[in-house]
Specification:
two-stranded antiparallel ribbon, alpha+beta, 18-stranded antiparallel barrel, 3 domains, 5 helices, Porin
């Protein structure tokens, strides 16, 4: 009874177990069929392939020939809701999914080029991807159409961004690079004062000057004491101590096209010991250069001098207490035209010379009106430019000298016609060499035929040469016709020349030296006179405004006329101020 009873029980249990297994298999097959996208009966091959496939590799994703065995596989969770946002609304259009490390809101990323809509692939999308057919033709078609699908999805994402999100502004560096570069140049770093390189001035002790309108004006004042062995530079002169004051003002224009310059100077001497002596002299000269264009240029000049007549003058006035004052007025006006290498110019000269009355030692004055005269002349010059710095020329001068008194006290008509011919060269080598030199013949014929014409060689020079930097050599020369009031005498010709050397031994030490000579030839007689002079001096500057200067000077005058010789030596020491 028990055996009969137990067999049915065992059979019932076996039957229940078999039903569970079959039920489980059917469920598994049904699930696999759903995952494989199949409906109805599931083949045994499909079930075996699904059961025997390795974990993480879905049916149809096995490695195929020509594909890399190490190709990374994208992790896609099977269970719905394994990752946040795994809903149907958050579907990933390109099927790439989201990283598990990504934040839910990517719009907060400051380094993102443009925000993207958040979301992950839904379970339904994953199921649709897994349910794709296994055939090779379908997989090839998916790969061919994948690019187009991703492009459409990205376009859709961009549309969403434009309508639902803010676009990040570009960084400052991506703006105008030229503006950034300009800002860096204009706002460059300034070096510290301690490390700045100081520029060396070319002339650290030159005067700064004053700005008056468009002119730069410099002023120099010399005040010192001079000892001399011959106070008035005359035969039998006495020694003495003199106070010497000299003032000079220079003005130079700062114009772009034209140029102007002017100079005003004055010297006052007063004895402080020894022989009683006082003297004042001064002058003014100015020049103007005009560029008229089209090869034309004009020049104008004016000069005025005032000085007492020296004891070595060719006119001797007997019984005077002091020499009369000599006034000189000179005006020039010139026009120049350049035609190729040809240089043409015409210069007019007006020179006025007159004297004050002489004071007599016994009282009263003596008029010097018969010595007053005016010279008017025109000089025509033709030059040819051999080189830009060298222009040889020839010049002809025609003029007349007018005396204020047509007939002097001796009964002679001393007005005369003037004619001169010269040849020379003009130099313009900049700072190295500039100026001109000429030589020729000069003649003045008087209206009174009883007077012999004044004629002789004419030499003129104005040269400045700088052999080395800081050294200047100056050469000057002139020829002057001197009148006289002596009865029966025509006058004389005076030749003057000088050579001066200036050397900047140091920036604040200036050395100077000069020599000069005068030679006078009396027309119609064998009488001559000669003057020699030499001078050496130095100026040492304390600073730009003040310095100390000194000089030594010696002069000798000899004449074939009686009682005319004299000598003079002097020493000067003083203070020089400049601005």
């Amino acid at each position: 009874m028990r055996e009969k009873t137990g067999v049915p029980l065992l059979r019932g249990a076996a039957t229940g177990i078999l039903a569970v297994i079959l039920s489980t298999g059917v469920s598994t097959v049904s699930v696999l069929g759903q995952e494989s996208g199949l409906r109805g009966e599931v083949s045994e091959e499909t079930v075996n392939r699904s059961l025997l496939s390795s974990g993480g590799i879905r049916p149809g994703d096995e490695a195929r020939p020509g594909e890399s065995d190490t190709a990374p596989q994208t992790y896609v969770p099977v269970s719905e809701g394994a990752l946040p946002g795994d809903t149907e609304d958050d579907a990933d259009p390109d099927g790439r999914g989201r990283s598990i490390f990504a934040d839910s809101n990517e719009d907060d990323d400051p380094f993102a080029d443009a925000p993207r809509p958040a979301g992950r692939p839904s379970m339904a999308r994953q199921n649709r991807r897994q349910a794709q057919p296994d055939g090779a033709a379908e997989r090839t078609q998916d790969r061919a159409t994948g690019t187009a699908a991703r492009g459409a999805n990205e376009a859709a994402d961009e549309d969403i961004v434009e309508t639902t999100a803010s676009v990040r502004a570009p960084t400052l560096d991506s703006l105008d690079q030229d503006a950034n570069t300009s800002a860096e140049v204009l706002n460059g770093r300034v070096e510290a004062i301690e490390t700045r390189d100081l520029e060396t001035e070319e002339a650290p002790y030159a005067p700064l000057g004053l700005r008056l309108g468009t002119f730069d004006v410099t002023a120099t004042l010399d005040q010192g004491v001079r000892w001399t062995s011959n106070v008035d530079s005359s035969p039998g002169g006495e020694e003495g101590w003199l106070s010497e004051t000299q003032l000079r003002l220079n003005a130079v224009s700062d114009w772009s096209r034209h140029a102007a310059r002017a100079s005003l100077y004055g010297t006052f001497l007063k004895s402080v010991s020894g022989a009683d002596y006082s003297q004042a002299q001064g002058g003014l000269d100015a020049a103007l250069d005009l560029d008229l264009g089209s090869g034309y240029a004009a020049t104008a000049g004016f000069a005025y001098t005032l000085r007492p007549e020296t004891a070595s003058s060719p006119v001797v006035i007997v019984g005077t207490a002091s020499q009369p004052l000599q006034h000189g007025l000179t005006g020039t006006l010139g026009l120049r035209k350049d035609i190729g290498k040809l240089r043409l110019s015409a210069t007019g000269l007006l020179d006025r010379e007159f004297y004050s009355d002489a004071e007599l030692s016994g009282g009263g004055t003596l008029s010097q009106e018969e010595r007053n005269a005016t010279l008017a002349s025109v000089a025509l010059r033709v030059g040819y430019e051999i080189a830009p710095a060298l222009v040889p020329f020839v010049e002809t001068e025609i003029g007349r000298r007018f005396y204020d008194l047509e007939i002097d006290s001796s009964g002679f008509a001393r007005s005369a016609d003037r004619l001169a011919v010269r040849g020379g060269a003009a130099f313009d080598f900049g700072e190295k060499l500039s100026g001109e030199i000429s030589a020729g013949w000069l003649r003045e014929t008087f209206d009174d035929t009883r007077l012999a014409p004044v004629a002789g060689p004419a030499v003129d020079a104005r040269l400045a040469w700088s052999p080395v930097r800081g050294t200047t050599v100056t050469l000057t020369g002139s020829t002057t016709v001197e009148g006289t009031t002596s009865a029966g005498e025509s006058g004389s010709i005076l030749y003057s020349g000088g050579l001066a050397l200036s050397r900047e031994a140091r920036a604040n030490l200036l050395l100077e030296a000069s020599i000069g000579a005068d030679w006078r030839d009396y027309v119609g007689t064998s009488d001559t006179e000669r003057a020699l002079r030499a001078e050496a001096g130095a100026t040492w500057w304390f600073n730009r405004y003040a310095g100390i200067n000194g000089r030594l000077r010696h002069e000798t005058f000899t004449s074939t006329l009686p009682n005319r010789d004299w000598q003079a030596s002097s020493v000067y020491l003083g203070l020089r101020l400049q601005r």
